[in-house]
Hints:
The protein is mainly α.
Amino acid sequence: MSFLKKLTETVSKGVSTATEKAQQTVEITKLHTHISGKRKEIERRYARIGEAVYEAYLKKDLSLAEGLVIPECDEISGIKKEIAGLEERIRELRNEKECVCGQEVPYDTKFCPSCGHKFPDPVPVPVEVIEAAEEEEPEAEPEAVVVEAEAMLVCDNCGAELKQDARFCPDCGSPVKSND
Length: 180
């Protein structure tokens, strides 16, 4: 009976994970669609700027375009900030970010494990999030689990778990002492 229970739990966890991934994919797709709409809005504003400049050119007084160009440029800057926030939300959903050295790291990493670069604290971006109703699962009795583990590295400074190839702690940024 315990085998069937374990199998059922494993399948349930797999279905739950698949459901979360599907919801994440739907949200990411919606964000990409929103970004695409914002980029089209920028293109329309570029066209308006171009038309205003051309009309002013025809009148041989480019200063006539200034009244339209500056507000359009301000709007474009605001839209670009919104796009950056939406892209940041996508990276957060994917649990990833890119370091200046090109290394992809988990989103909550504070320091790059390859080069030691300190990431700025994330700024929350107001984005509409669709949440699914969460069902409470009954607590299962703990079972003994045998796990083969490789030697785990921990930071001497803060005690955070380190990957085998880390040269810097992802939590505190301290250099990792080599065991060579």
